[in-house]
Amino acid sequence: MPKPDYVAGQSWTYRTRPGEEASRVAIRHIDHEPEDGEVFHVSILDVKLRNHRLPGGMQRAMNHAAVSRATLDASLLALAGEADADESWRDGYAVWRQAYDNGDAGIFEIPVSEILGYIEMVVAASGEARQ
């Protein structure tokens, strides 16, 4: 089976967590890195990401995640059309880019649904919001 052509600007359905079936992955940008090969910069939209730092304790999107082709291959199901034109992923990309270039960041190589669980775990471990 040939590898799908992932292109910046696409929106995809994926193997979601229960209750997030309407969620989509938007491919925002693709880098080619000497050590990691293709790095896909994605937004994960319409999720229910627990985040005690936000009012209401819920985050509706993960605006930026750097992922491998293996992550997309293991997660994406069907092309859902064009991604929205939201540019809020760029802030997360800029932070990632600097950290990556300094050797302090990498890319996710786990399925998208597991990335969301991992981020929830990291946020929860950071402690409760201070009043």
Structure characterization notes:
The chain is an alpha+beta fold. The chain has one domain. The protein is built from 3 helices and 5 strands, in the order E-E-E-E-H-E-H-H. It has helices at residues 69-75, 89-101, 112-125; strands at residues 10-14, 24-33, 37-50, 58-67, 76-82. It has a 5-stranded antiparallel β-sheet. The longest helix is centred in the C-terminal third of the chain and has 14 residues, at 112-125. The chain is globular and about 40 Å long. It starts with 9 loop residues before the first strand and ends in a 6-residue tail after the last helix. The relative contact order is 0.23.
Mean pLDDT metric: 94
H/E topology pattern: EEEEHEHH
How would you classify the helix and strand content by structural class?
alpha+beta
Shape: globular
What is the percent of helical residues?
Answer: 25-40%
> Strand order across the biggest sheet?
4-3-2-1-5
Give the C-alpha Rg.
Answer: 15 Å
Can you summarize the main beta sheet? Answer: 5 strands, antiparallel
The end-to-end span amounts to 53 Å
User: Given the structure, what is the number of helices?
Assistant: 3
The count of domains is 1
- Low-pLDDT segments, ≥5 res: none
The number of E-state strands comes to 5
